[in-house]
Design a protein that fits this description.
alpha+beta; five-stranded antiparallel beta sheet; two-stranded antiparallel sheet; globular
């Protein structure tokens, strides 16, 4: 997925999210998930976009493009080469907000970090749940969540994360993308697939609101 494709996708996602905000706010509790981001990353420029979204004033839920210096710095800090489709996204928008979704934000690249840095308790919970499984689970990502890289921001009303698993490579030889939800971990076919599913989810929820 190239940068032109990302511009089209993010334009559609932006419009769908902005259209859905009044419906979400009108159906209490108004869980936009923006306050969680502001509380955790108050000094980030993206926090101002989140505040604007909560006030109903936002027109663009993304950020200016990331520079190559920012991308390279994150790769060096984390010891990983970021997937090409993800860096293409970053070159269009360095982070993105999706108010009301379980995964309500994708972090700017300078804020991505190992899951264990901020959510060691989450990693421990998933690792301990494997103790109750009858099958061999040594290779499961739940055993090494501390070392995965968190691309998504603070969870909204459900504990969902979008992660990179540095120990698994795709058919293209790139780091695999993992979606971590309450039921467990699921590898997905690239970062673009996750964002396409986000667009589908927002549009589906919007249709349900409009049919009420």
């Amino acid at each position: 997925m190239n940068e032109q494709d990302w511009r089209r996708l993010l334009t559609d996602l932006n419009q769908a999210c902005l259209t859905s905000i009044p419906y979400i706010v009108a159906n209490p509790p108004p869980e936009l998930g923006m306050q969680q981001f502001v509380d955790r990353h108050a000094n980030s420029a993206m926090a101002q976009v989140a505040i604007s979204a909560m006030a109903g004033h936002a027109t663009w839920l993304g950020m200016p493009p990331a520079t190559q210096v920012q991308i390279t710095s994150a790769e060096q800090r984390l010891g990983v080469t970021l997937p090409s489709t993800y860096t293409a996204f970053l070159r269009v928008s360095n982070g993105f907000l999706m108010p009301g979704q379980s995964t309500s934000s994708i972090l700017p690249v300078e804020l991505i970090a190992h899951l264990g840095d901020d959510h060691a308790d989450v990693a421990r919970f998933y690792r301990e749940t494997l103790d109750t499984w009858p099958a061999e689970v040594d290779d499961y990502v739940q055993n090494r969540l501390e070392g995965t890289i968190q691309l998504s921001g603070p969870p909204n009303h459900r504990p969902e994360f979008v992660l990179l698993d540095p120990q698994e490579k795709s058919s293209k030889g790139e780091v695999e993308v993992v979606k971590l939800v309450h039921e467990g971990a699921e590898y997905i076919d690239g970062f673009e697939q996750f964002m396409e599913l986000q667009l589908f989810s927002v549009n589906y929820g919007l249709r349900l609101y409009q049919e009420k």
